[in-house]
Amino acid sequence: MKTVAKIVVVMAAMVSISGCAGNGSAVIKAGVSTRQDVFREASDSTAIAGKALLKIDFPVKNTKARIATTYFKHSDPSYTVTINIDGQAIVLKDEPVLEDLPWDFKDNPEAGTGWKYAFKKELLLEPGKHHMTIAVPLSDVILVKDITLHAGTNILKVTPDYRTSGMRDRNYPKFNLGLNTLKLELNNQEL
Q1: Residues 23, 33: Cα–Cα separation, whole Å
Q2: Which of 22, 29, 76, 126 has the fewest CB atoms within 10 Å, measured from its CB?
Q3: Distance CA 35, CA 133 (A)
Q4: pLDDT band at 76, cuts 50/70/90?
């Protein structure tokens, strides 16, 4: 019986490890630009006639480690987000703020103390259908979607979907367990 239990534990560990490493090559590929003519960064927050202005907003909370009351953030490498649209990639960076919210994760998956990032970017590109990849390398999370942009302003909200524990609180996601996946909303429509 002990041998069977050991085999089950080893198999579960192998599945867990392979799941974490499963997106590695896709995350690296998302960061490679094969084109430079798809979009340009917009600085004035205004759309140009006949163009699509894509405003990306992605708030996420994370913590690398904690020792007593000291919270460590990711610094080498930094916690970043890679956006790839039709082969052109850009890396989003932000300086996080230590956020402490009342500890009730059943109501708020970001309850507790951790580093809050607010990734934002505005891109100017042609209206129409685009192939988009969003990758969070340190969380090994990648999301691939086709989006359709109209001329004028387009708002893309990226929402973190945090992991849940396998224990008694499995119905309640918590930021300190890491990202599970991402949810997208384009112009108030869930993708």
Answers
A1: 18
A2: 76
A3: 14
A4: low
